Structure prediction request, 143 residues.
Amino acid sequence: SNHQVQVSFEVPRDPVTVRCDSEWLRQAVSGLIANAVKYSPPDSEISILLGTGGKTAEITVADQGFGIPEDEIANVFDRFYKGGGAGASNSGGFGIGLSLIKWVIEAHDGTITVDSRTLPHHETKKGARSGSTFLIKLPLMAT
Prediction:
């Protein structure tokens, strides 16, 4: 399928070091990015940012998808949550993915939160953007 989504990736000049199981963390971030791609309409953009705030590493994955309805956002990390929103028809929803991602992040003494905006179709046609932003925070390793 010709599902073109642009991905931008920003990292700071200096390395950001966290104590982690790199394979698990890679899987967690990859899962978030895969979700973002899956829920993104063609010709939209996903931005991935790595940064630091105080003693915390921050990874942000933001998409311009359909967003998560407000009444579902509290359940988005539940083990059997399946998104029922507008772009969720393609194969299955978030499901175990997000709950496992949350488990991995919390096992590393981190947090994951989501902020999302859904818009009626006529507003997105006018160029307003819907979408979800996931923010992972992990403790930085003392240098």
In short: The helical segments are 22-38, 96-107, 121-125. The chain is about 25% helix and 25% strand.
